[in-house]
Amino acid sequence: MNTISIRRPDDWHLHLRDGAVLEGVIGDTSRHFARAIIMPNLVPPVVTTTDARAYRERIMAALPKGDRFEPLMTLYLTEQTDPNDLEDGKNSGLITAVKLYPAGATTNSHGGVRDFDKAMPALERMAKIGLPLCVHGEVTTPDVDIFDREAVFIETVLDPLRKRLPELKVTMEHVTTADGIDYIKSAESNLAGTITTHHLIINRNALLVGGIRPHYYCLPVAKRENHRLALRAAATSGDARFFLGTDSAPHVDPLKECGCGCAGIYTSLNTMSCLAHVFEQDNALDKLEAFTSLNGPAWYGLAPNEERISMVRQADPVAFPDKRDTGAGLVTVFDPMFPLHWEVVET
Ligand code: DOR
Ligand code: ZN
């Protein structure tokens, strides 16, 4: 197969940032994707409906002329989140989900939740009104090894929370372990998971072998090969509980290439080409559309996009820029370490 046509994809987990970086990167998403769930971890974070409305306007103002793109806004859950504000945000159509960052889990997450009891009024309201919770599924306790953070989170935080509030719809974001995949599969309802492009392609060797490679550093950190294979199997299976959330997370190079580099991999620019490669390798090109364009909308109760995109397998490797130039500096584009032949040709 050298050509595929699929419904226009959506990205169910995206960092667009603000200001010059937003302006520099948004076209890489809007070129291929119709909608994206926009992460709220700005400085300061997007915590109220008013914040989200203003951020949405800045995103729309930064869109390249002529691009049609719908940002699906999220709020950053804090111990002070007002349940009425969440409900108003959902009812007005502005808010699609609420994001839970355990305090200290990742970039700009110090205002996240420490004491879940304090966030219960908001979580209970979300369960009642059907507003999904997107979780960054890692514990942050210093005694837990960073490679075990996801498995420990499932056991000590997520499972108890889901038992306490079975009606709450939870998206486990950027699943990185076989434990996460198994947990999602074992749930009877109200649980789904996003998988990133890069976690389908790299394991932890990419980060550490032959030198420390900051552009492969993200959170949750890439795990062992057996975990990557479990993610690949889930993504390419067509199972409706798994769908694309790129977690494309631009940081300008000086913030990555330094003594304490930021977590985040920038994949928006070549994600569709990387994914077509992965699905082709696994003889599952016929499942690509489910992963990028069907399962996500179904989970969020939205119609899939009517428009389509076409992808062609070129004989020669496609040349992608290795940096995205933003007004704030250069952002390195994800290098999958193999040549990419699939190209989006029509959007
Ligand atoms: O690698 C990551 N980068 N993981 C996250 O959870 C946050 C993100 C960011 O905002 O840079
Ligand atoms: Zn993220």
From TrEMBL:
Top-level taxon of the source organism: Bacteria
Keyword Kinase on entry: no
Entry's Gene Ontology molecular function annotations: dihydroorotase activity; zinc ion binding
Residue ranges occupied by any Amidohydrolase-related domain in the UniProt entry: 11-320
Cofactor(s) required, per the database record: Zn(2+)
Membership in a protein family: Belongs to the metallo-dependent hydrolases superfamily. DHOase family. Class II DHOase subfamily.
Assembly and oligomerization: Homodimer.
Protein known as: Dihydroorotase
Source organism of the structure: Rhizobium soli
Gene: pyrC
